[in-house]
Amino acid sequence: MTATTLATAGERTWRRPSPVPYLRYGAGKLGGAAVSLLAVLVTGFFLFRLIPGDPVRTMTGGRPVSAEQLAAYRREFGLDLPLWQQFTDYCGKALTGDLGTSYQFRTPVLDKITEALPNTLLLTGTGFVVYTLLGVFLGTRAAWRRGSLSDRVHTGLALTLYSVPSFWLGLLLIIVLSVGVGPLPGLFPTGGMESGGKEGFAYVLDVAHHLILPVLTLVAVEYGQTLLVTRSALLDEMGSDYLTTARAKGLRDDLVRRRHAVPNALLPTVTLVFINLGRTVAGVILVETVFSWPGLGGLFYQALSVPDLPLVQGLFLFFAAAVILMNTLADLVYPLLDPRVGRA
Fold this sequence. Notes:
Elements: H1 3-9, H2 19-47, H3 55-59, H4 67-76, H5 83-94, H6 109-144, H7 149-162, H8 166-179, E1 180-181, E2 184-185, H9 200-238, H10 241-248, H11 253-265, H12 267-282, H13 285-290, H14 296-304, H15 309-337
Helix pairs in contact: 1-10, 2-5, 2-15, 6-7, 6-9, 6-12, 6-15, 7-9, 8-9, 9-11, 9-12, 10-11, 12-15, 14-15
C-alpha cells in the first residue's frame, strides 16, 4: 500500500447519498417534525391556560368595570366559549397562519412577532456567529495541545461558564460594566437597544454599544458546548493512522491539523451548529428580559405578565418551531456530509 493511500485511508470521502434511501430518510424526519409541531400546538394551548389570573381583568388595569363590560370583553376575545371550542378554533386558525389577536396590543400576533423578530435576530445572530467561531477555534487548539496548560484552562473555563445561568451572568455584567464597581466606571448602557435621537452611522454605533453586553452574555454561556464537542471529536481523530502517515511524510503539524484532522472532526460540530441556532433563538428570553432588549424574548415575558394568551401561544409555537426546524435541517444535512447516515 502506498503512502498516499495510507494517508487518505482514514479520511471520509464524500459520496452523493443514494436518492431512494435518502428520500425515505428525509420523509421520516419531516414526518417526525410535523408530529412534533402538532404536539407543541396542543401543549401550548393547554399549558398556558394553567397560568393564574384573569386576562380580561388584567387588561382593565384595575379600573372599576361592570359585569356587562367584562362579559363583552370575553365575547370579543372568545373567552366565553367552551374550552374545546376555543381549542378547535385556535388549531384551525393556527394551521392557516392566523395566531389570533393580542389582548393587550389589539393587533394580530403574527404582526407583533414580525415586528420584534429583526431585533432578536440581530442579537442571536451576532452571538451565534461569535460563539460558534470561538468554540471551534479554541476546541481545535485545546484538542491538539491536549493536557497542556492552555487546554486545561480553556476546558475548565468552558465548563464553568456553560453551567452559569444566563440571567445571573447578565445581571453581574450590568453591575460591573454598566453601573460600575468602586473606581471602575460604567462603560455600557444598562439596557435597551438604543439611546434615541440618533441617525445614520451614529445610530449604528449606538445600537452596537447597546449590543455588546447581551452578546457577551450569550457568548460566555454558549461557546463552551461548541468547544467541548469540537475538542472531543478531534481527539477521536487524532489517533488515526492517516494522521500518523501524514506526519511521517513531513507535513507540518498545523497543516495536518487544518487539512486532515479538523475537516473529519467537524461532523458533530456541524450538527451542533444547527441545533444551537434554533436553541439560541428560543433561549434568548432571559437575556432579552435582563437587558430590556425589544425582541421576542422581552415580548414573551411581557405577554406572560398579563397573561396575553394568544401572544404567549404564538411565541411559544414560534420558538418551538425554530428548534424543530433547525433539528430537522441538521438531520437532513448530515447524510450529505456522511453518506453512512440514513442508509437503508
